[in-house]
Amino acid sequence: MDRLLILLLFIAAFTTNAQEKHQTIWGTITDGTVPISGVNVTLSGSDEGTSTDANGKYEIQAIAGDLIEFSYVGMKTVHIRVEDVTRILNVVLWPKIEKLDEVVVTRSKRKTQRDLEIDYAIDKNIINTSFGYLSASTAAYRLQVIDGSELNNAAVDILSAIQNQLPGMSLNIFTDPETGISRRGLSKSAGRGRSAMFEVDGMVFTDAPTWIDINNVERIGFLSGLQAAWRYGSMAAGGVIFINTKSGRHGAREEGSDRPYDRAKLRHNIFKDDALGVSSLEQASPIYLRELFKCKTIETAERVFERYAESYRNSPYYFIDSYNFFMEKGHRKYAKRIADEALKKVQNNAMFLKSWAYYFEGHDDLKTANDIYEQVFILRPNYAQSYRDLANSYRSVGDFNKAARIYARYQYLRDEELLNISDSTAINTIIERESDNLMVLETDHMMAKRLLTEREERFSEFDGTRMIFEWNDSEAEFDLQFVNPQKHFHNWEHTTLADFERIDEEKLTGYSCEEFLMDGSLPGKWQVNVIYKGNKRLEPVYLKTTIYYNYGTISQRKEVQVYRLGLKNVNQKLFEVFNSGGITTN
């Protein structure tokens, strides 16, 4: 029987018969310096909980999917989602600073229309109207903004799609008292039964724009009450529904192009060439790596490895790092022996298996990497990342039909709502782009020509440089820094403090990756750095980067690099890339 078919049958059985397993979670809570006693550690939505002892230590039972809450008076509450590999969670609590108006008087900096126009592309709380750009985050009145990706494409029409997203909004038949003409519309209780007015890309409509294609909606905003009537008069007594379509022009553009502004050019964030290089990072490595780096011969390096092997026999990182060292020195046979022994100890740990797969890919051992991704697929059948990794791995070893079948399986499970993934989830866009790229570039090698759809047109339009970042540990916190040719930089933050919603989504959906696209607005040499903030276990993290050149064209090629992140809170140089582009996320 086909090996892939066996895998899929196993997954089908697993997803219908999976049992919840309790696991013990433990760790220490600190303020960044000293332990905190009396911290409440509870499972959100239940009465189960405990508190830290005099040494800041705690222990609690949980199952994968549970949300653990860490709370303490005067500190910001922290929430962490439990995963299958979660065991140790060492958490840092930060002070909750609340300024009293009568004591501290500050003058907030209001954003200008130009600021809002520039921010439109990255801030989904901004809507474009005939009265200018409005932000739900800063407006002094109630304004609701919905991203178009949140609309149900299967809705009957745009009215039904909006109704499902705006609580209290109802579909009604309205009759014009003067003409007697009846029409469908939307109303809220605040509108006293009156139909809401519509503004589509700056044009006002009293009749509902049912002709709008839901897939063409970029953003929707709703303004009710006096603010709507103040702007549009009595005809807006039922509120105003703003619709920004993808066909319209919204947000500022780079000069001479139709692309959004490159964020790195907007601030006085000048890069000072202070990122650490490889030699500096080697000096900060664990003692066993420093000893290996000093070795003049392979024979000496083997003796160093054997000497430390007993002390580090319970550390998967020791064997991963040693394998990579010997591979880079060209001693492949010895490195393979290390890997064969070490892999036996981590067969049930997806996090460590992914680290090994990263390095096998980096050293072009694609067959072994594929075997490991199959293991991870079995361990994590409900993770979106498992489908992406396995499909990409099949493609790497030249089995394009298996890759297409994995993508098709993923799409089927999504459509049947057996995977917890929305259209707006980052991994979904990544998988769709890669699935379409496979269909476009490898059609001649596949039996799956019939799988080509209109989606290819949407994603194959991009033909620049594409960068994918993946990390093995879902608790990894870091900033990616992109330095443009003019030495300005932009940071993408991946920390619980900066974006808890994103990290929680990653755990619920099961993914740990992000893509960045380089357009043609700012040519030259770019540098990519990383600032590692740590994880919850005080252990290293492995970051895999895949750079695709000429993405979406017949000359597409890729480079894979793997980095060990262990040194915290310092800027580390990853790589440089020459391109005719500026950075945007998906």
Side by side, the strands of the main sheet go: 10-15-16-13-14
Termini Cα gap: 39 Å
Q: Which range best describes the helical content: under 10%, 10-25%, 25-40%, 40-55%, 55-70% or over 70%?
A: 25-40%
Q: Number of DSSP helices?
A: 16
Mean pLDDT: 84
| Principal-axes shape call | globular
Strand content: 25-35%
Major β-sheet profile: 5 strands, mixed
Count of β-strands: 25
- What structural class do helix, strand and pairing data support? alpha+beta
Radius of gyration: 27 Å
Low-pLDDT ranges = 13-19, 99-109, 448-460
Can you tell me about this structure?
This protein has 586 residues and is α+β, with helices and mostly antiparallel strands. The protein contains 16 helices and 25 strands. Helix 6 runs parallel beside helix 8 and helix 10 runs antiparallel to helix 11. It starts with a helix and ends with a strand. About 5% of the residues have low confidence.
Describe the secondary structure blueprint for this structure.
Blueprint: H1 3-17, E1 22-30, E2 40-43, E3 49-51, E4 57-63, E5 67-71, E6 78-81, E7 91-92, H2 113-119, E8 126-129, E9 132-135, E10 143-147, H3 158-165, E11 170-175, E12 182-187, E13 197-200, E14 203-205, E15 217-223, H4 226-232, E16 240-245, H5 278-283, H6 287-294, H7 298-309, H8 316-328, H9 332-343, H10 350-362, H11 366-379, H12 384-396, H13 400-415, H14 426-441, H15 455-460, E17 465-471, E18 477-483, E19 489-494, H16 496-509, E20 513-518, E21 523-534, E22 541-549, E23 557-565, E24 571-580, E25 583-585
Parallel strand pairs: 1-7, 13-16
Antiparallel strand pairs: 1-4, 2-3, 2-5, 5-6, 8-9, 10-15, 11-12, 13-14, 15-16, 17-20, 17-22, 18-19, 18-21, 20-25, 21-24, 22-23
Helix pairs in contact: 6-7, 6-8, 7-8, 8-9, 8-10, 10-11, 11-12, 12-13, 12-14, 13-14
